[in-house]
Amino acid sequence: MGVRFKICGLTKPREAGYLNEAGADYAGFVFYGSSKRHVTFEKAREIRGYLDPSIRTVAVLVSPDAGLVEEAQAEGFDIIQVHGDLGEEAYHALSVPLWRALNVKAEDGEGKILERLRGPDCGDKCAGILLDAANFGSGKTFDWEKAKNIRRYLGKKQWILSGGLDAGNVAEGIRLLSPDIVDVSSGVEGEEGKDKDKVFAFAERVRHYG
Prior knowledge:
Elements: E1 4-8, H1 13-22, E2 26-31, H2 41-48, E3 56-62, H3 66-74, E4 79-83, H4 88-93, E5 98-104, H5 110-117, E6 126-133, E7 158-161, H6 170-177, E8 181-184, E9 189-190, E10 193-194, H7 196-209
Parallel strand pairs: 1-2, 1-8, 2-3, 3-4, 4-5, 5-6, 6-7, 7-8
Antiparallel strand pairs: 9-10
């Protein structure tokens, strides 16, 4: 199977149609009040009703407690993606696969990333490691050189590249880093949410290298 892609931060039902037409593999919904892409579980449920059943859904949480993890799982999301802190109680509440998001800061070297990979919150429940820029949702990339050797340390975990991707740079990211999945949000947005043409252009670039 080639490189797959996730469109994150859906906020409108029409965006589900874009993903369906573009053949997206994953759809992400952000449950974090400080994000401009924040949606309620009720709104996400409405949007998900328009998605093709083949598209796997991802609940994006930031430093969740066990209650929020359980609430997201009760909504039927296929994957829980966690940024920020993930405490022991919240980790043990997981019953669906975890994508653990690690934000790469400017001062972080490869050693710091590997240290994070060995943490208890990247254990058996973790199905994938997502590397993102220091501030997720910022539309900025991180230094990709820091991730060029990450695959050898992941074992069977999926490798998800995120942070500042768009149709103009995703092919280069795939060529350099060989991720399993690429994740885009702001890079496919226009003035009012996701832009259909940008979604299609991104999908085409991924397929070219997939």
